[in-house]
Specification:
The complex is a heterodimer of chains A (about 260) and B (about 625).
Chain A lengths: L9 E9 L8 E10 L5 H14 L22 E2 L2 E2 L21 E5 L8 E3 L2 E2 L2 H10 L19 H11 L6 H5 L6 H13 L7 H14 L10 H5 L7 H14 L2
Parallel strand pairs in A: 1-5
Antiparallel strand pairs in A: 1-2, 3-4, 3-5, 6-7
Helix pairs in contact in A: 2-6, 3-5, 5-6, 5-8, 6-8
Chain B lengths: L14 H8 L5 H4 L3 E5 L3 H13 L2 E5 L17 E2 L11 H11 L6 H21 L24 E2 L5 H19 L2 E4 L2 E9 L2 E9 L5 E5 L2 E4 L20 H8 L4 E2 L4 E7 L22 E5 L17 E2 L1 H5 L9 H13 L11 E4 L1 H7 L1 H19 L8 E10 L2 E2 L12 E3 L17 H21 L12 H19 L4 E2 H16 L5 H21 E2 L9 H25 L13 E2 L2 E2 L3 H4 L1 E6 L8 E6 L14
Parallel strand pairs in B: 1-2, 1-9, 2-5, 9-17, 18-19
Antiparallel strand pairs in B: 3-4, 6-7, 7-8, 10-16, 10-22, 11-15, 12-13, 12-14, 14-15, 20-21, 22-23
The chains are: A alpha+beta (about 260), B alpha+beta (about 625).
Chain lengths: ~260, ~625
């Protein structure tokens, strides 16, 4: 391996939100991350810090994570004020330390939104997103008794459009980034995916109304076109789907 | 004991239809009287919970994540097989059945595999109806791609995120049932014990991961859909939370563990960057449709930039060794071939543990834009992790543990030897034999969940009275007390080594001695070292925090403790199987690098029974019969 790829060790200062449980008062604590290389992912860097904390008899920093390849949507950290850390189309588990410099100070916080109560440290409760899907983010098809998959033709542009929307991983970064704490990008992605497909059309009106009602009841705010959601979205979900949602909602008023 | 899989007999084409008719039914008004527990909400669990709820049963579903949509099925990239034969290229249910039996190196049950192939077509229809945006061609028809181990194009896909889209389809069906009140969902719960009353599975004990409280749930049947165990290698492509724990607890309550030594090492994963890293990222097998695997012919070229190595100095080893399948050789074969090149000192990258996956030929043929459309997200992911551009420089790949073909033993009805305990998806052992072909894990998970368990569980429930056991039964209290004592013990050791240090050490032993190649010596070595490591763990592990709160260190400690026991069983199974088949490669049994099966002595499922902490487990055998696909040397040449 050439010398420029050799692991250069970094030392970083982390300022991390610590909160014992949902009702306790939270605060920032400062930690030092040592021996970090450019090849560490952000969460692997936290693993290293946690190993040190455990060895020193201290409580490790709790954070949600699972697949570590940017698809499960479990990881959820605000890094230096930006959900997922600001690298375009990247979850925090895929953010690598080569984006930081030796000596940097990094602020790490949980998602902040009224609908996402803090559970502990960097972990929040995102069941509100499930509630929105349960309100109507599905087609009411039964298991079995379905015609052949090719019985319904779907044009490639429609299939691609639906897929663009369907890429949402349900992490909630859109709501965390939104000044109104709206999960409108999340909601619109599901509404748009299903509204674009023939299978989803029969329930399109009911779906958009029910999902928006649930969105409101969960305590999310409204969309006022800041587009912070799109900037923070690790899957690059486009705000055009919010426009689609608005159109579907308007249509539903006359349905 | 000789085990009986209770497979239907007669012409294979009629087995599932006949069996479905023979199964008893529960009438619609009675279904609501039965409670069913489903643990895990991946493709198998999500599909099962949704389908059973829709049928009218009372379902309680559990997952350790914060929502059922995150199970690791979501990470499957490449696709899902079905025998639709849309491309008119010679596919059929029979061919999918044949390929799967052969791909599994003749170590799976014919009847189970037939059923899988038969219902594969229903799965595609089901997913389309749910709004899964499968790739379409310009005429609006479903598109297909080819995958390893098959000479037809039968793989359906949604870009490089097929698992995600299928799981979200199952999740949406599940969400609909949760809203309808037929499924009660319990997030952030980890199953820590199976409750067995008078020899019958009647419930589970869970830890509420937020509060730390132990909770009891009773039901008339329990379905484990809890995935695979390859995190035993520490290095793996599985999610961090994947564990053997649920299956292991069931094993210790009497469920047989079948073929634990059959593990799949996926050939194309991004090599490890440092020992702090356990999670390896897989690059879809679909890449081998257009990517060519090679290493330099000459060791002198290893230090060179790949562009400086001329065509004639490159060894396209898969094309050389397996001309008819080439780069689409099955996973076990492709992984071993990669290891062979690296062992020969011709591996590239750090430590010589890598082979090139080169797209330059395909880019010349179809253009970079087409390659980007096919695999754009994978190239992006590769660049995020390695900081290298796969369009301009060949990717570096190395095999990594990915999937477990072994799992809890089940009969044709997916019921384990414990009545009332059903096991679905990767958690069971049933259809992949000793090697799984690409794009068939998604197929199995959804087949089990949507189209098998809704029938077979009815056959069981129709024969029992509902609600005979509640959580007031003393077995529930006993189970909770046992789990509590176990956690207390973990927390009280307060030693010097962290949980991760033990897991790294165990993983190292498993990868070195029970990984891609195994020998009698390496396995015997592990059977000494793993018990010693386990003993040290219980004296010297340091677990922080308490049991009465959210405590990820305690969660990991429990999972590691189970892996330490399971690793031993896996080595024991690998040692007893004196043959090579599929993913199980014993160096002593080979023919110039190809696996050498021993059908005279090992044509059976090996299922292990727990006999107590101090006793050795007992092996039970289920002989495998091949009436349709004749036993033959598996060749991809």
């Amino acid at each position: 391996m050439s010398s420029h790829n050799e692991h250069k060790s970094m030392t970083l200062t982390l300022i991390v939100w610590r909160q014992k449980n949902a009702t306790a008062q939270g605060k920032f604590d400062t930690y030092t991350a040592k021996g970090i290389t450019e090849h560490h992912s952000f969460l692997e860097m936290l693993d290293v810090v946690n190993e040190d904390l455990i060895k020193g008899g201290k409580e490790p920093i709790m954070f949600d994570h699972d697949c570590r390849e940017g698809i499960c949507g479990m990881c959820s950290q605000v890094v230096n004020g930006v959900p997922h850390g600001g690298q375009e189309r990247t979850t925090v588990c895929q953010l690598h330390m080569r984006k930081f410099k030796d000596g940097d100070t990094i602020y790490i916080e949980p998602w902040r939104a009224r609908a996402f109560p803090i559970v502990r440290d960097l972990i929040v409760d995102r069941t509100a997103l499930d509630t929105i899907i349960q309100a109507g983010g599905f087609t009411s098809c039964h298991t079995g008794g379905i015609p052949d998959g090719n019985a319904i033709l779907i044009s490639k542009p429609d299939a691609d459009y639906a897929m663009d929307a369907a890429e949402c991983i349900g992490c909630g970064a859109c709501a965390a980034a939104c000044p109104n704490s709206a999960a409108m990008l999340f909601t619109s992605a599901k509404v748009a995916q299903l509204a674009a497909l023939p299978q989803g059309k029969p329930e399109a009106s009911v779906r958009v109304k029910k999902m928006l009602d649930a969105h409101k009841e969960c305590g999310f705010g409204n969309c006022s076109n800041h587009y912070e959601c799109q900037a923070a979205c690790p899957k690059g979900i486009n705000v055009k789907f919010i426009a689609k949602l608005n159109r579907e909602y308007l249509k539903a008023q006359f349905a | 004991m000789i085990l009986d899989g209770k497979c239907p007999t007669g012409p294979i084409e009629k087995t599932w239809d006949k069996h479905r008719f023979d199964l008893k039914l529960v009438n619609p008004a009675n279904k609501r009287k039965y409670n069913i527990i489903v643990v895990g909400t991946g493709l198998a669990g999500g599909a099962a919970a949704a389908s059973l709820g829709e049928l009218g049963y009372n379902v309680q579903a559990f997952c350790y994540q914060d929502t059922p949509r995150r199970a690791h099925s979501i990470a499957a990239q490449g696709g899902i097989n079905a025998a639709k034969a849309y491309p008119n290229d010679g596919d059929s249910v029979y061919r999918l059945f044949y390929d799967t039996i052969k791909g599994g190196d003749f170590r799976a049950r014919e009847a189970d595999v037939w059923r899988l192939a038969q219902v594969s077509n229903n799965i595609i229809d089901q997913c389309v109806a749910q709004g899964v945006p499968f790739a379409r061609d310009y005429a609006g028809y479903l598109d297909n791609r080819s995958f390893g181990g098959a000479q037809v194009s039968r793989t359906f896909f949604a870009r490089g995120q097929t698992g995600q889209q299928l799981l979200l389809g199952a999740y949406s069906a599940l969400s609909r049932q949760i809203a309808a009140g037929t499924v009660k969902m319990y997030n952030r719960r980890e199953m820590l014990d199976l409750v067995v009353v008078d020899g019958v599975a009647k419930g589970i004990t869970c830890r509420n991961l937020i509060t730390g409280e132990l909770e009891s749930y009773a039901a008339d049947a329990v379905c484990l859909c809890t995935g695979g165990y390859v995190n035993v290698f520490y290095l793996s492509t599985n999610a961090m939370g994947c564990s053997v724990t649920a299956n292991w607890k069931a094993y210790k309550k009497g469920a047989y563990f079948a073929n634990p030594c059959y593990t799949q090492i996926h050939p194309t994963c991004i090599p490890q960057a440092g020992d702090y890293q356990s999670k390896l990222t897989l690059m879809s097998e679909s890449l081998r449709n257009d990517g060519r695997c090679w290493v330099p012919k000459n060791k002198a070229d290893l230090a060179k930039h790949p562009d400086e190595i001329p065509e004639e100095a490159r060894d396209y080893y898969l094309e050389r060794k397996y001309p008819s399948f080439g780069n689409l050789a099955p996973r076990d074969i492709a992984s071993r071939a990669a290891k062979e090149q690296c062992d020969d000192g011709r591996g590239v990258g750090p430590g010589g543990r890598g082979v090139y996956l080169d797209f330059s030929t395909a880019i010349k043929r179809v253009g970079a834009d087409t390659i980007k459309e096919r695999y754009g997200n994978l190239f992006e992911m590769y660049e995020k992790i390695t900081d290298e551009n796969g369009y301009k420089r060949p990717m570096r790949m190395y095999p990594a543990p990915h999937y477990s073909m072994g799992g809890l033993w089940v009969d044709y009805n997916l019921q384990s030897n414990i009545p009332g305990l059903f096991v679905l998806g990767e958690a069971n052992f049933s259809v992949h034999g000793a090697n799984r072909l690409g794009a068939s894990a998604l197929m199995q998970g959804l087949a089990d969940g949507y189209f098998v368990i809704p029938y077979t569980i009815g056959g069981y429930l129709a024969g029992i009275k509902p609600g005979t056991v509640t959580t007031a039964d003393p077995e529930f209290k006993k189970s909770t007390d046992d789990v509590k004592a176990y956690s207390r013990k973990l927390l009280s050791i307060n030693g010097k080594k962290t949980v991760s240090e033990f897991m790294r050490e165990l993983g190292g032993l498993m990868w070195e001695n029970c990984g891609m190649a195994r020998t009698e010596k390496s396995l015997k070595d592990n059977l000494k070292k793993i018990p010693a490591l386990k003993e040290e763990f219980w004296k010297n592990v340091k677990v922080s925090g308490t049991g009465g709160e959210l405590n990820q260190d305690l969660e990991n400690a429990g999972r590691t403790a189970d892996f330490l026991e399971f690793g031993e069983l896996m080595c024991r199974d690998a040692l007893h199987r004196k043959e090579s088949c599929g993913g199980h490669f014993r160096e002593e049994y080979q023919d110039q690098g190809e696996a050498q099966r021993d059908d005279v002595n090992f044509c059976y499922v090996g299922a292990w029974e727990f006999k107590g902490e101090k006793a050795e487990p007992e092996l039970h055998k289920e002989p495998l019969k091949f009436d349709n696909v004749h036993l033959a040397v598996r060749s991809y040449k």
